[in-house]
Amino acid sequence: MKRSRIALRRSRLAYGVGAVAAALALTAAAQTSASAQPFSADPAPARSAPANSSADPAPARSATAPVPTPESLAPAYADCPQDLPAGADRAKWRCEVTIAYGHVKLGGIDLPDIKPITLVHAEGPLPDGTFGQVMGTVRAEPTPVPGAPGLSVRAEYGGYADFLSSGAMDLKFRLVSPFLDRACAIGTDENPVKLRLSKDAPSTWLSQDPPLVRFPAHDDTFTTPAATRCGPLGRAINDRFALPAASGDSLAAFTVYYTFKTYDRLAGA
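Request: output the structure for the sequence above.
Response:
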């Protein structure tokens, strides 16, 4: 009985290795690039006159993805960070809910229609006159990798973001498969995927009350680290998907929508 259980475990591992290896063999890499304007964080719409633009074509959003509304984004306010800096004026601090649709390519993993990534953070004036921000959450559903049955990628927070002075966003991309270790990911807290997004067009105000703003942004200069903590299939994954990938071999191109509320207007304020 003991030998038969060991044989069964070995046969399952062999099946898993074979299944993932076959899935990897079906995938193909693609490379895309885009032009950009220098990124700058939107200058607090509540504090300045809206700058409408009809030139924003929203190229990174899937044609099948619905345009979000402030109401559809409202449930994410539950993730608003509550630990604001000492002395923060709740009437001036905003909780922003952002959703990004688009195309992500990580070396040879090409996700032309990645599942929407929802980010929640707070920002506002500090007592010394400067501005501060507090990160909340990053949430996304796993995106199946085309041509690789059973393999998906899920975006996660990588430990750093700067939405005030740049388009900095560190992410990890979890590799989800029944044949991979649950810790398997492209990027770690110590070595994340460091996106530095550039705005491709001015922001477009789709609605002012409640606010809804849209802009396109991309980064095709970041490097992509190797997948780690993947178990016995780690080398096969990195070999098949050409990881780690140098600058120019990866892409993040998004159409970004966001809405916001000041903290004094949040439920339970």
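Residues 130 and 240 are 47 Å apart (CA to CA).
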